[in-house]
Write a structure and sequence with these properties.
Chain A: GO terms for molecular function: ATP binding; ATP hydrolysis activity. Chain A: InterPro entries: ATPase_AAA_core (IPR003959), Bact_Antivir_Def_Nuclease (IPR051396), P-loop_NTPase (IPR027417). Chain A: Residues 604-617 have a biased composition (Acidic residues). Chain A: Residues 586-617 are annotated as: Disordered. Chain A: Residues 28-321 form the ATPase AAA-type core domain. The complex is a heterodimer of chains A (617) and B (494). Chain A is of the alpha/beta class. In chain A, the strands form three sheets. In chain A, strands 1, 2, 3, 4, 5, 6, 7, 8, 9, 13, 14, 15 and 16 form a 13-stranded mixed β-sheet that branches. A four-stranded parallel β-sheet of chain A has the order 18-17-19-20, with helices on both faces. In chain A, strands 10-11-12 form a three-stranded antiparallel β-sheet, with helices on both faces. The radius of gyration of chain A is 31 Å and the shape is elongated. Chain B is α/β, with parallel strands linked by helices. Chain B folds into three domains: 7-199, P-loop containing nucleotide triphosphate hydrolases (Rossmann fold), CATH 3.40.50.300; 203-288 and 432-485, Rossmann fold (3-Layer(aba) Sandwich); 294-426, no CATH class. Chain B has 21 helices and 15 strands. In chain B, helix 4 packs across helix 6, helix 14 (311-322) runs parallel beside helix 17 (368-377) and helix 18 packs across helix 19. The longest helix of chain B has 16 residues, at 389-404. Chain B is globular, with a radius of gyration of 25 Å. The chains are: A alpha/beta (617), B alpha/beta (494). Chain A binds chain B through residues 82-83, 85-88, 91-94, 96, 105-109, 111, 113, 136-138, 140, 142-143, and chain B through 49, 88-89, 91-96, 100, 103, 123-126, 128-133.
Chain lengths: 617, 494
């Protein structure tokens, strides 16, 4: 069983979305800036495929709160199990879907067969699950579509790990543990007997079969990377006021519900995997939630294993998670005025390098690619400073989804910028201008819609800065470099030698010449024009600012030095600022908290209805 | 409690299952349906998902009844006619099948639907659907499968290899629309013959000598030849009576004193002669209509064409055709009134007051609703009795449907189709005394069979089916002592 396509209309933050899933992958990491409706996509899948008999919808679930248009979620599911393929299920209502995700009335040799599950919610808020087929070639109506009942949806088994995961760590009719048990034993009898006995004698009364099953869960939970349990077994959970009593998983005397959220989520995934024998679709919102990086990495490796689940959909905001994934795993979600665009990044090999070194870029809306550490540090300082703006209507770069990354040298950064542009990120490229090879490539970046910030006149950063400084300014620059040198005590001596080696004056106390005080250099016959050349060359070649924190200091120097507030440097800095803070077309989505955020808490945390349906009731 | 399978029957079923795909050839009354149901039971017990297909609706109901007796639920074993199953396959996939089946299927297009279903079932995707739906398929009355239906079954066999077919080539008489496949060359090559020793089980509790005779002597005689009836030693229960100069023979045979609980079938050659005979027998024997209901279609077509001022006449004529005991409602006087659309004022017809009142109301107020009312009312006339009650009731149901649709006569034939669809799906109303043709009683059993004129049954398969309907007695009437048996055409019959 495999989801081939997902269409969403009018649901929460999504006015319309159509995602055709690539057939060759089973693991999908949805990424995108905040409010890009990633979680809504998971919720849509979950609701369309839920095995609960009904789901509560509210007016706020409608896009923009507008109940005049129905919520419509369609999920094309292929590779159906025999029970669903049979004529008494959907064998007489199969649609076809081709490799590109186009669906048709009937499958022929160019199509896979599938059932398109349609969840429809009108203003009456009563959800209807039914099969959908596009019209036949002759346009004739198929008549009423067959409804898709909870028992059918249970066979499709989409499972979401969220706050309700605790429910699955108890034995109840609908929980993963309950289903797991029902496949092995006569559930009702076992659970009824066990629950009844549990009320009397707690864990002693649990059948050997149930205990054995707990051990199996323990083994799988440990494989999936949760905590190591000493002795996983069924026990009586007295934390609930439920009169029927509740069997739950315990480690020794401690109910699993008392473990950290990360552990509970992993245990929930493990029971689900066991219950459905690798046939289920797993949905994990914020996969990193509650997990240390090493457990997160282990979990991702486990989930990408093709056998564990038929398909896995996760969302993440974790650079650590991204670093351990490949571009082909990533699905970019963007939402512009309700139109959500979902697309796989594909597999350009070079993006792999970007993910490994700068995963945060993929979590952004706009990437500032900096040629090297100097530029990266400068931009970090710039944005830190600019973000303190308190004027009304100002939106910080973080809120705009801007992420600055350290590039890969001149031509390397251009390549990254180009590839990020190709997968539709906004890109601002900040480069030196002293490399002819790089400069030759820049028009290509601009042609793809990137913004390039570079110094006028084919010069490096240090040269650009120095060319606008007088002697005092040059001295101040040297002092700034001294401050951030690894050893500020010896830095003046080291810098003096470096300057002297490039034509700076030797120390001459008699003539009042100080090698690191440029205002004294005229005493040695070096005019300010020569001094600019010497200082910029030394700063550049001796790498005074070629570390991120040093670049930050240079950035500070640029913003704080009056001579740099006008002229070419100021112009480039202003261009950079404008590019970073440019308002995207979807700016309004950023400013107003989305409906999704406003309602997610209210609907998602509701207790699953099966709690009252404990076996034996 | 469902019937338990006898060891012998269970062994037969298991033997059949073990050789699938295979065919079983069994003469009439040897327990073919019994074996089929037992096979389904054994399969169901093993958790199999079974599809049973048959040819006619009569056969469908016989199988359902037998399955129920054996405790096989509809969830374990689905039963359908080949045509209905073909429609169910073709309807959802018009592109794959190349046929669009309308909401109410047109049975004249059945061949088209079957061809469409074959194309659908041949698709790789639908083959998987079939394989997911069924583990075993059993097809009864296989001798009646046309070439198209045979191709459909083969397309199912490609998906569900465990297919068994049961039939008797000697009982094939439905080859009047389409060519039948050659049993030896086309059926047995796909479904190798599984030999079972046939026992004349049907006659065990009725007339064993008759069973032995039908299975032995009769079966051997069934090939083109001259067949004598006079001076032949028949087993007990079989009699021949030459009717030359013995006009009332059929009436005396029909009225012969038989226990009420025992069923009697009179076989005639044609529908018109059957209805005439039914009328003469005064309603004691009921006409069995064919599923398509041609008689009813003609009557309703006449109603559609009729102006309201002819409604009374239309009902008068229908009453004449469907009921007996209407001599008092004479043509020259009474009918003439309604031809002229005048009431019966001034006429006195004792015992027929309700009928005259019904016709008169139509003269005064010719509505469809009054037709429905009148059809009920005139039956209360003392002496009037329906012999074609099946036709009468379905025509009335169709008119009722037209009233419900807002007095829309254009829906009459659709409404009739619905009523006939019920016959298809729920079976015929049970009748103990029936007049019918060989074609309509295939697969049915009666205690006593009267063949109205043996000279009308000169085709091998027709005669064999006519003779083998009887469990206790056969009365053969004939205007000749001898007939020339001819082969039954297996292809298009003019």
């Amino acid at each position: 069983m495999r989801i081939r396509r997902l269409d969403i209309e009018h649901f929460r933050g999504i006015d319309s979305a159509s995602w055709r899933l690539p057939t060759e992958h089973t693991f999908f990491t949805l990424i995108g800036p905040g409010d890009s409706t990633k979680s809504t996509i998971l919720t849509a899948v979950e609701r369309a495929l839920t095995d609960r008999t009904t789901v509560t919808f509210q007016d706020t679930d409608f896009h923009g709160g507008d109940i005049s248009e129905p919520i419509r979620i369609r999920v094309a599911v292929a590779e159906l199990p025999d029970e669903l393929l049979a004529l008494d299920a959907f064998g007489a209502f199969l649609a076809g879907i081709d490799a590109d995700g186009n669906w048709v009335h009937e499958p022929d040799e160019d199509h896979e067969s599938c059932v398109i599950v349609e969840l429809l919610v009108d203003a009456d808020l009563e959800p209807i699950w039914q099969a959908f087929r596009p019209p036949a070639d002759d346009g004739e109506d198929d008549g009423d579509p067959p409804s898709i009942r909870a028992k059918h949806r249970a066979r499709i088994t989409a499972f979401r790990i969220d706050e309700r995961v605790d429910a699955h760590l108890r034995w109840s009719r609908m929980s993963a543990l309950g289903k797991l048990t029902s496949r092995r034993e006569d559930t009702k009898e076992t659970l009824t007997a066990a629950n009844r006995a549990a009320r009397v004698a707690a864990a002693e009364a649990v059948s050997p079969g149930l205990k054995e099953l707990a051990k199996e869960v323990q083994s799988t939970v440990q494989q999936i990377g949760s905590a190591e349990f000493a002795d996983l077994k069924p026990g009586l959970d007295v934390s609930l006021t439920n009169a029927q009593g509740n069997l739950a998983l315990f480690d020794g005397d401690i109910p699993l519900m008392n473990f950290g959220l990360g552990t509970r989520r992993l245990a929930g995934a493990a029971t689900q995997q066991l219950a459905n024998g690798g046939a289920s679709v797993l949905l994990v919102d914020e996969v990193e939630y509650g997990l240390e990086p090493h457990r997160l990495v282990h979990l991702l490796t486990y989930l990408r294993n093709k056998d564990a689940f038929s398909q896995v959909f996760v969302t993440t905001h974790s650079p650590t998670a991204l670093q351990h994934l490949d571009p082909e795993d990533l699905v970019m979600v963007r939402c512009t005025s309700g139109a959500t665009d979902v697309r796989s990044l594909g597999d350009p090999l070079s993006l792999r390098a970007v993910i490994k070194s700068s995963p945060e870029a993929f979590l952004s809306r706009r990437v500032v690619v900096n040629e090297g550490k100097t530029e990266y540090g400068m931009v970090l300082h710039f944005t830190d400073t600019w973000n303190t703006d308190t004027s009304e209507g100002f939106v910080s770069s973080a809120a705009l989804g801007v992420v600055a990354i350290e590039g890969d040298g001149g031509t390397g950064s251009v390549k990254w910028a180009t590839e990020l542009l190709e997968v539709e990120y906004d890109v601002v490229l900040f480069v030196d201008s002293d490399d002819a090879n790089t400069n030759a490539l820049l028009p290509g970046v601009e042609a793809k819609g990137g913004v390039v910030a570079r110094w006028a006149g084919d010069v490096c950063t240090e040269e650009a800065v120095c060319s606008q400084l007088d002697a005092a300014g040059l001295s101040a620059l040297i002092q700034a470099a001294v401050e951030v040198h690894d050893d500020p005590d010896t830095a003046p001596t080291v810098f003096a030698d470096q300057l002297i080696a490039r034509g700076g004056p030797k120390r001459d106390e008699a003539a009042a010449v100080d090698p690191i005080d440029v205002t004294t250099w005229t005493n040695a016959g070096i005019d300010v024009e020569q001094a600019r050349g010497i200082v910029s060359l030394t700063a550049s070649k001796a790498k005074w600012f070629k570390q991120i924190h040093k670049g930050r200091r240079l950035g500070e120097f640029i913003l704080d030095t009056p001579a740099l507030q006008t002229g070419p440097v100021a112009q480039v800095v202003e261009e950079l600022r404008e590019a970073i803070y440019a308002r995207p077309p979807a700016a309004e989505a950023v400013e107003t908290p989305s409906l999704e955020e406003a309602t997610v808490g209210a609907t998602e945390v509701e207790e699953p209805s099966e709690v009252e349906e404990t076996p034996g009731a | 409690m469902p019937d338990e399978l006898s060891d012998a029957l269970r062994a037969d079923a298991e033997g059949f299952i073990a050789t699938l795909p295979a065919s079983v050839t069994m003469p009439a009354g040897a327990g073919k349906t019994h074996l089929l149901a037992a096979t389904a039971r054994v399969l169901a017990d093993a958790g199999a998902k079974v599809l049973v297909l048959t040819h006619t609706h009569a056969g469908l109901h016989a199988i359902r009844g037998r399955l129920k007796r054996f405790g096989v639920s509809t969830a374990q074993c689905q039963v359908s006619t080949i045509t209905s199953f073909a429609i169910a396959m073709a309807r959802p996939y018009p592109t794959l099948g190349g046929v669009r089946v309308p909401a109410t299927p047109d049975m004249d297009d059945a061949t088209l639907y079957v061809a469409g279903a074959t194309a659908v079932a041949t698709s790789e995707h639908i083959r998987k659907v079939l394989a997911a739906s069924y583990t075993h398929v059993l097809v009864d009355e296989y001798q009646d499968c046309s070439e198209g239906q045979h191709a459909f079954v083969l397309s199912i066999k490609a998906a569900v290899s465990q297919v068994g077919v049961l039939g008797d080539p000697l009982q094939a008489i439905f080859g009047f629309k389409e060519q039948l496949p050659d049993w030896e060359r086309e059926v047995l090559t796909e479904f190798p013959d599984h030999l079972i020793d046939p026992q004349p089980r049907r006659w065990d509790d009725h007339n064993q000598a008759l069973g032995a005779w039908l299975h032995g002597t009769v079966r051997k005689a069934m090939h083109p030849r001259s067949l004598k009836f006079a001076g032949v030693k028949f087993p007990d229960g079989v009699t021949f009576r030459n009717t030359v100069g013995d006009y009332p023979a059929i009436f005396s045979e029909a009225r012969r004193d038989r226990p009420k609980s025992e069923s009697v079938l009179i076989i005639t050659a044609r529908a018109s002669s059957a209805r005439t005979l039914a009328g003469r027998l005064g309603g004691s024997f009921k006409m069995m209509e064919e599923v398509a209901g041609n008689f009813m279609v003609k009557a309703l077509e006449a109603l559609v064409a009729a102006e309201p001022d002819a409604y009374a006449l239309w009902l008068f004529d229908l009453m004449k055709a469907c009921a007996c005991g209407h001599a008092g409602l004479d043509k020259n006087t009474v009918r003439k009134r309604y031809v002229e659309n005048r009431s019966s004022a001034g006429l006195t017809r004792a015992g027929f007051e309700p009928a005259l009142a019904a016709f008169d109301r139509l003269v005064a107020e010719p509505t469809l609703a009054n037709l429905v009312l009148g059809m009920d009312q005139l039956l209360t006339s003392r002496g009037l009795a329906l012999h074609s009650s099946e036709a009468w009731l379905d025509i009335q149901a169709a008119i009722r449907g037209a009233v419900a649709a807002g007095d829309d006569k254009s829906v009459l034939l659709d409404e009739l189709a619905k009523a006939r669809e019920n016959v298809r799906h729920t079976g015929r109303r049970n009748r103990n005394r029936v007049i019918s043709r060989t074609l309509l009683v295939k697969g049915l059993e009666f205690d006593h069979v009267v063949i109205a004129d043996i000279a009308d049954h000169t085709e091998v398969h027709d005669l064999y089916v006519a003779l083998t309907r009887a469990r206790k007695t056969i009365t053969i009437l004939g205007t000749k002592d001898e007939i020339e048996l001819k082969p039954s055409p297996n292809g298009p019959k003019k």
